Each structure stands twice: as structure tokens, then as C-alpha cells.
Inverse folding.
């Protein structure tokens, strides 16, 4: 990082052209398609667990292995899913987000991004 | 972070102590000596604002992950959660799950874009494409509120911890300890800046997690590594199978049930809105390292809460609720008593010192956040309109640290024996209501405007603080701050259930009704930067 010549600072026009480029649209939708369902999943799963713990105490007190009951097991599962989502996201980000983000970043930092891609086309709604 | 310390008052009035106070003090002094050396070394390379606020952006993801864990796991969460599980069993465990799951919000939605679009503070991100002045002032106000409440809780907690661990029970003695903690905090931050503070947090995180790991293995070994046997013993000591079941604390009435849902929301949305946590994402060189630091933080924090589950039930089985409640410090003494039971005075000394180190590391992180917010947002960008030099800003930041230190010492002395949980609930609720909605909107919603941001932040702040003021935490119950009075018209102790949705709604309505159109260019720039890391602040080369 320290060896390279300092990258060009993109202009306001560069950013607008980049935002509309198919590359950026693809990066953004790749990110959202993963992040939005995952966020909904863990929030719903956490709230479900909280609600079960509060309103379904008998169910949660069901003994499963020795003195270990369902509540403790579901609680430990919250840890498992948290670790799991973390691992999934890291694999996903390394494989699907980073290469796309890097290509765009390099294109923008090489200078003259807007001129080589064509100017901003009108002002879309 | 604290479930802690309704027992603070109790601690101040009891007079017996377990273990050997001088040993505890000696181990703690050794920690201070070691960290001071590290901080002094770090000070040699702290010259610019980026060094002071962001540690030169030179920390690796792993180091920063450790530091985040060090910043997040307060003494209160250690002592408080172990105690809560030991006494209320399962319901104590519910707490820790919320504290962990919250980190997914940071991982998936916040850490990387924040690193890509900001420089030093939360306000950098929020004001990127909105109007600087109003947004920065609002963001700095909520940052200062959150850090002040949190700081006060930690300082008051330090006083309570002292009576428990060092055998200092007089009010004067405890005040003296609060002064020492405050002075050390000022010294760490002034001398070492973010770099020194980060190292203190790293050392503390390693000590805390390994100390807790040793105790966990040790107590499990006593039950032949059979967790079920430990639970069985906990039940027979408590003479109550309900300790393994949900409901001991939150199942009492419909209000406590709804209160728990409210708390769960505040925990999940609060963690990723805590300014001192957000600021840590600027200490790494790239978004990828920011991601890595959250992964490390999740692993460490997750392990820590798993360990506290074992320790809590271990304390319930090996010591029992009655002895815990009878000890000085009450519920918070479960972990120290367990350490004493397992490894005698030496282990107790180590665990006590770790608990102290924890307070120091957390208050130092809070102080640097507050000083950055004041110097960078208010002084440099609002008062001086961005025309101050880095040197001037740094000077203001350092003066601010001293002022914050003195204010929190005085506040900590004043808040001694107060219900500390009150202050922490306030900090988390304000973070979740005032900060998080605005951060999410500004990163992910194109139509978000300045009015939306200002309404959401002030609205979230006022509603959450207001509801707490009229809740049973403030008045109307035995454990209230003002037990004699009763103006608790709002039944829940935690305002999250109302204030978080309200803040999201205010942000939406504010944006929709804002006649002022935000810059399309800036929005494009922010979105592209946040996703790609173009032109993100580079690490400082020394």
C-alpha cells in the first residue's frame, strides 16, 4: 500500500457515474441480497427466543438431556447461529463483495472514471 | 453493559471482606505499572489528530477485535451477569444473549461502511451528505450524553467494587478510589491517545477472557466436565428447580414481561450505536480489517458470555444464593466468591485486579470518545467551521479529556450508592434510540434528509431520557433513584420499545416533510465510498 503512487481523487461526476454503473448496481444488490434477509432472520429468531422465554415457560422448561432444558439449548443455539452468520458473512464478503469492490475502487482511483465511462446521463428521477 | 449493582448501596454498608485486600491491590498496581509502560511507549508515535483519535489507523483487525471486546465487556457485565445467573438462573442468561446478538447489527450493517465514510467520530458519517452544523451538533450531543451516563455508571461501579474487593468501606475511601481511577484514566488518554488506550484494552481483554476461561474449566472440572451435573447441583443447593427455567425475574407480571422485550430491543439496537464502539472502527486501515475486528469481537464476546453462563451456575452450585446475598456486594460478589472458592486468595486477587483493569480500560475508551466528539465535531467543525489546525484541535481534545475526567470523578462521587443500572439503561436506550436509526438511514436510505436526522436524534434522545425520568427506575419503587417520590407514570424500566420505533418514525417523517433537498452528488459519493472504500482515510505512516 505504501509503495504505490497516490491514487487519483475521484470527482463528484465520477461518483455519480459510478453509482449508476452496472458494476456498482451489481455490488449493491449482491450486498443487500445477503444482508437484508440475514438481518431479518436473526432479529426474528432473537425476538422469537425472547418471546418463548417469557410466554412459553413450560415449553422452555422441558428437560432434554439430564438437567439441561430446552431454554438453555435454544439459548446456546443463539450463540451457534450468531457464530454461524458471522462465518457465512465473512466467506460471502471475501468471495462475492471484496473482488467487486476492489475492481470499482481501482477503476475510480485510476482517474478519469467519468470520461471513460461517459458523462452523467440526464437527471433520473 | 451492566445488569449490575442495585446492590451498590448494600456494599457500602457491609463490613466483612473475603480474601486479602493487600494482595488484590498489589496485583492491580502491577497492572497499572505494566500498562503505563505500554502507554508511554505508544505516546512516542502519537503526534497528529489521526494518531490521537484513531491510533494512526495502524491496528490490525485482530488487535482491534480484542480492543473492542475490551471496550465492551465492562466489569459490571462480568460481575453483574455472573451474579444474575447465580441468583435468577436462566433469566440472567437472557441478558447475555442480547449483548452478543447485537454484534450482528454491527457486522452486517455498520462496521465496514462506517470505516469507509468517516474519519474520527460518528458525526463524520452522519454529516457526510447532510448539512454539517445541525447534524454535527445533534450527533455530538447524543454522543456526549451516552458517554457521560456510561462513564458515570462505571465510576460509581468502581466505588462499589472497591468496597467488595479491597475492603474499603468508608465513603471517603471509596471517593479516593474514584479519584484514582479518574486520574489514571486522564493519564492514559492524555499520554497515549487512542493508541495507548487501545493497548490498555487489548491487555485487559486478554486478562479478562483468559481469567474467566480458567475459572470456567476449573469449575466444570469439579463436576467431571458434566454441565448437567452442575445444573443439578445448582438446583439442589437453591432448593428450587425454577432456577433453570425462565421467569424468575421477568415472568413476575405482564409489565415485567413487556419490560424484558423492551430491554431486548434496546440491547440489540444499542450496542451498534454506542459511540465508543463505533469509534473503534476507525483505528484499522481498511474496511476489510474492520470486518475482521468485528469477527474477533464476536468470537471473544461470545466465548465470554458462554463462560459466564457456566460461572453463574457454578456459583449457584458451589456457593449458593444465600451466601452470595449475605456477602458484601451482594449479587455482584458471585464471581469473586467463586474465584475464592476455587483458587483461594491468589485467584481472587487476580480476578479482582482484572475487574479493576476492566473499569480502567472502559473509562479510558469512553473519555477519548467524548473528547474526540467535542474537539472534532463541536470545536473544529462547528465553532471554527473546519478552519482550525490539527494542532489546535488536538489541544482542545486534551483539555476536554481533563474536563471530562474531573466531571466524571465528581459525578462518580455523587452517584455513589446510586442505582447504577439506571445510568446504563439510559446509555443503551439513548444509543439505540438517538444514534442507530440515523446511522442506518444515512447509510442505506437515499431519501434521508437533515431534518430527518435532527428529528430522529433529538426525538430519540428526548423520548428515551423522558420516559426513563417518568419510569419506576426514577421514582415510585423501593429501588428507584428517588424512592420517596412517585411520579412514575410510565410503567416500563426500559424505554426501548417506545423510543426506538419512535425515532425511526421521526426520521422517516422528518425526511418526507423536509422542503430542503439534499445534495445528489454527495449522496452518490457517500454510497460509492461506503461500498468500495475509495479514498478512505489511509493509515498514518511512521
Amino acid at each position: 500500500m505504501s509503495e504505490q503512487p497516490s491514487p487519483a481523487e475521484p470527482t463528484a461526476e465520477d461518483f455519480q457515474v459510478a453509482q449508476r454503473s452496472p458494476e456498482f448496481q451489481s455490488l449493491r444488490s449482491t450486498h443487500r441480497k445477503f444482508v437484508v434477509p440475514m438481518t431479518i432472520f436473526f432479529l426474528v429468531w432473537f425476538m422469537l427466543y425472547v418471546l418463548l422465554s417469557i410466554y412459553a415457560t413450560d415449553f422452555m422448561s422441558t428437560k432434554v438431556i439430564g438437567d439441561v432444558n430446552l431454554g438453555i439449548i435454544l439459548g446456546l443455539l443463539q450463540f451457534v447461529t450468531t457464530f454461524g452468520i458471522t462465518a457465512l458473512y465473512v466467506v460471502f464478503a471475501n468471495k462475492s463483495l471484496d473482488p467487486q469492490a476492489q475492481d470499482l475502487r481501482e477503476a475510480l482511483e485510476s482517474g478519469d472514471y467519468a470520461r471513460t465511462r461517459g458523462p452523467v446521463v440526464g437527471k433520473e428521477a | 453493559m451492566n445488569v449490575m449493582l442495585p446492590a451498590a448501596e448494600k456494599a457500602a454498608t457491609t463490613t466483612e471482606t473475603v480474601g486479602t485486600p493487600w494482595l488484590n491491590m498489589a496485583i492491580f498496581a502491577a497492572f497499572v505499572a505494566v500498562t503505563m509502560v505500554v502507554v508511554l511507549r505508544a505516546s512516542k508515535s502519537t503526534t497528529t489528530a489521526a494518531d490521537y483519535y484513531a491510533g494512526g489507523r495502524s491496528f490490525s483487525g485482530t488487535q482491534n477485535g480484542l480492543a473492542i471486546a475490551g471496550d465492551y465487556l465492562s466489569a459490571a457485565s462480568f460481575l453483574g451477569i455472573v451474579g444474575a445467573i447465580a441468583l435468577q438462573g436462566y433469566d440472567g442468561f437472557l441478558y447475555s444473549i442480547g449483548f452478543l446478538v447485537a454484534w450482528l447489527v454491527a457486522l452486517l450493517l455498520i462496521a465496514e461502511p462506517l470505516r469507509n465514510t468517516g474519519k474520527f467520530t460518528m458525526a463524520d458519517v452522519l454529516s457526510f451528505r447532510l448539512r454539517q452544523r445541525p447534524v454535527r451538533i445533534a450527533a455530538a450531543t447524543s454522543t456526549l450524553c451516552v458517554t457521560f451516563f456510561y462513564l458515570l455508571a462505571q465510576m460509581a461501579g468502581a466505588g462499589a467494587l472497591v468496597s467488595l474487593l479491597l475492603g474499603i468501606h468508608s465513603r471517603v475511601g471509596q471517593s479516593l478510589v474514584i479519584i484514582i481511577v479518574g486520574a489514571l484514566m486522564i493519564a492514559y488518554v492524555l499520554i497515549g491517545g487512542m493508541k495507548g488506550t487501545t493497548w490498555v484494552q487489548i491487555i485487559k481483554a486478554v486478562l479478562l477472557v483468559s481469567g474467566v476461561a480458567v475459572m470456567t474449566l476449573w469449575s466444570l472440572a469439579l463436576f467431571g466436565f458434566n454441565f448437567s451435573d452442575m445444573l443439578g447441583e445448582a438446583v439442589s443447593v437453591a432448593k428450587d428447580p425454577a432456577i433453570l427455567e425462565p421467569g424468575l425475574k421477568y415472568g413476575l407480571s405482564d409489565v415485567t414481561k413487556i419490560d424484558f422485550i423492551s430491554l431486548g430491543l434496546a440491547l440489540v439496537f444499542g450496542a451498534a450505536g454506542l459511540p465508543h464502539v463505533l469509534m473503534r472502527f476507525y483505528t484499522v486501515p481498511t474496511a476489510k480489517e474492520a470486518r475482521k475486528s468485528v469477527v474477533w469481537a464476536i468470537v471473544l464476546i461470545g466465548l465470554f458470555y458462554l463462560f459466564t453462563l457456566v460461572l453463574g451456575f457454578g456459583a449457584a452450585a458451589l456457593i449458593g444464593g444465600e451466601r452470595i446475598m449475605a456477602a458484601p456486594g451482594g449479587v455482584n460478589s458471585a464471581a469473586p466468591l467463586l474465584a475464592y472458592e476455587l483458587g483461594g486468595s491468589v485467584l481472587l486477587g487476580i480476578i479482582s485486579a482484572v475487574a479493576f483493569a476492566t473499569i480502567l480500560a472502559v473509562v479510558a475508551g469512553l473519555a477519548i470518545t467524548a473528547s474526540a466528539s467535542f474537539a472534532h465535531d463541536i470545536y473544529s467543525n462547528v465553532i471554527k467551521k473546519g478552519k482550525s489546525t490539527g494542532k489546535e484541535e488536538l489541544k482542545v481534545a486534551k483539555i476536554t479529556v481533563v474536563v471530562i475526567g474531573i466531571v466524571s470523578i465528581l459525578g462518580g462521587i455523587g452517584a455513589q450508592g446510586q442505582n447504577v443500572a439506571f445510568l446504563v439503561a439510559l446509555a443503551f436506550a439513548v444509543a439505540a434510540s438517538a444514534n442507530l436509526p440515523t446511522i442506518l438511514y444515512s447509510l442505506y436510505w437515499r431519501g434521508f434528509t437533515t431534518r430527518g436526522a435532527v428529528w430522529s436524534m433529538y426525538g430519540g434522545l428526548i423520548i428515551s431520557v423522558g420516559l426513563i425520568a417518568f419510569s419506576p427506575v426514577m421514582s415510585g419503587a423501593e429501588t428507584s433513584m428517588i424512592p420517596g417520590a412517585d411520579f412514575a407514570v410510565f410503567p416500563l424500566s426500559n424505554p426501548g420499545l417506545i423510543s426506538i420505533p419512535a425515532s425511526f418514525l421521526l426520521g422517516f417523517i422528518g425526511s418526507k416533510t423536509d422542503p430542503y433537498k439534499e445534495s445528489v452528488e454527495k449522496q452518490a459519493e457517500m454510497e460509492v465510498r461506503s461500498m468500495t472504500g475509495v479514498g478512505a482515510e489511509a493509515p498514518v505512516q511512521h
Q: What stands out?
A: Residues 12-117 of chain A form one domain. The first helix of chain A runs from residue 12 to 20.
